[in-house]
Amino acid sequence: MGYDPKNPMEGRLTDLGPHYFGDFLPPVIKENKGKWLYHEILEPGVLVHVADSGAKVFTVRCGSPRLVTVNYVRDICDIADKHCDGFVRFTTRNNIEFMVDAEEKVAPLKETIKSYGNKFPIGGTGACVTNIVHTQGWIHCHTPATDASGPVKAVMDDLFDYFGSMTLPAQVRIALACCLNMCGAVHASDIAILGVHRKPPMIDHERITGVCELPLAIASCPLGAVRPAKATVKGEEIRTVTVNAERCMFCGNCYTMCPAMPLSDPEGDGIAILVGGKVSNSKSAPKFSKLVVPFLPNNTPRWPETVACVRQILEVYAKDARKYERLGEWAERIGWEKFFEKTGLPFTEKSIDDYRLAYTTWRTSTLFKYTTHTDSYTK
Amino acid sequence: MAKQHKTPLLDELEKGPWPSFVTDLKQQAETKPECWDILGQLELSYKDRITHWKHGGIVGVFGYGGGIVGRYSDVPDQFPGVEHFHTLRVAQPSGMYYSTENLRALMDLWEKYGSGVTNIHGSTGDMIFLGTRTENLEPLFWDLTHNLGQDLGGSGSNLRTPSCCLGVSRCEWSCYDTQEVCHSLTMHYQDEIHRPAFPYKFKFKFSGCPNDCVAAIARSDFAVIGTWKDKIRIDQAAVKKYIDNDPAYPSCGGAHKGRDWGKFDIRKEVLNLCPTRCMWMEGDELKIDDAECNRCMHCINVMPRALRPGVEKGASICIGAKAPILDGAQFGTLIIPFVQVTKDNDFQDLIDVIEKVWDWWMEVGKNRERVGETMQRVGLPTFLSVMEIEPMPQHIQEPRSNPYVFWKEEEVPGGWERDIVEFRKRHAA
Q: Which domains does chain B have, with CATH numbers?
């Protein structure tokens, strides 16, 4: 018996919740849960966790594109069936973790993984660039200002060596959100790739009456740029809205509320780069990412400007930062003026906050370093 | 039936060492031809450099107000296989461990009723089934609940599917069983997940320690972050091994093995990087003034074989994080410094706090206002009084620098009612 459209409520089950996690733990995990003593990263992508009983679990971590097919997941299952007693897990950064309970099982597991070509790259541990967390982009979303899976693929191709090695001063977390809504939050990432719009919404007067609650659209604008208005459609006067373009900050919140106010534009849309955020409390408090590149074009299919910019920032950081220093901690230590000088990123007024609470980010001291930016005053 | 389209732009994304979603989709298209239309429409987006998904589309299963996001193509004639492309969020098991039996069953279900394309996992944590038609939703939901005993997650103005780090299952640092709490509260709040009744979305995230691997402090309205209240446990023999540069004791558990950073130097790498400078050496013995420690995890991260969190463990609760839309990004504000997280009372201590927040926010929160924004609007002092929490210096970074205190009438002797005539007798205009 299956779903009966004639009796949709009959036999319906609801509110079952997720499957109980306890059923899905590999035996070595179940037996040693809560009894782990320490861990070590044996080599890039391979961890061992040691329990107080001496039991060990070896984990091989692999990257994935996150956007995957049932075929791909079945490949994962085949590997887990062959080597891991039919269990597998995923990390919060879309990595796959295959676990075995003895060291001699690691090499055959890795061999099987490698037999899939580049499907399951091993790495993502320690002082590396681990997998990029990202949103949907053009594959599924209605509000994106850029694609997600495409730029992620292009950036990870370029930074591939950093995924499978541990040569950086600290871990570097890269995240991509394809619009300001940030359904995958990127506001606390070492390097954030953010889709941005640059043209105010258009108003589709012919559609607005049927699809939009005008007061909600008007209230949605944080800067009061959306105002009630009237327009003539097919000889009839209708209620609609108008946008004060000078006030628009291109957040797209109006489009979220009103489908008759689209923003998307091939020239207007692109990518901003923000850096220096972190989530961990280690050494310093969590930090927000800061906007250092206001716009890079959506140059499909491989976003070369974005790829080059991320590498440029990463390489200067890798060379200049001290051991354990996250990107934002490094930038704060050397000063943001030095960050711009060392990375060679042009500083523009667009990195100066003029939104709410902006003053807290202005420099209110005489504590600064001389850089090329001050040359016109000193040379 | 969908057919293969030319995808010269996407084909460029088959190159390079990182796994290619384009290659994967093409292989899947051989048995799921609608994948050709996904690729076709995506190619068109790469050409036009805009999205080709329409705004909106309210679809769902009976009785639920969340878990499914409606989506329609704006070019259905060209790509009929993606005319409807609705998304389902399937609630993930806490910690994201799976048996292959379950994973295969989920994939079989999705192959039967959908495009065969998924996200493992979505940003909030659910497994995402990407792309199906309206008429498939009820049959899929029937099979998901009846055959797999599993359920949809949250979307819209409701409790979103809670998520957690892997916790004590495989991490020595986790200060409580994140999976158990996450699962218990997810089960406890099924109604809030499936039937939107909030001003806006509300997220729980559970991290086992201040390293915060699920980004709870950045991404959840209600962040439960593990901590301890006693002393860091020290194994002095292991400290000595680190000082002696024993190869079995690499710094940060080997996280820096790929580069020669020179010999490990406990003063430079641990003591001097401690944000509170609460550590020192006496001979070969490491000393910690735990009363001065703010439990940042750095020393423990660097010397995992020598140092461990204390034994009196629990969590801190931070409330109100969100991404920038609209007034700017917020981290969670520390509200409760320490709470015991125990299954003994079914996590009632957490439930009490959660429901106090909800009762208030559901009443005063505006439409599409995250709780962190409501807190900003009314101010932290008001929020604390709503929560019946005594203000303390831990709630702030620093005291206010302006003098604009909102005194209450009852706090001022004699109150605010005064007589101007009497006043003028003493102070002529």
A: 8-146 (3.30.70.2500), 163-229+313-410 (3.30.413.10), 233-308 (3.30.70.20)
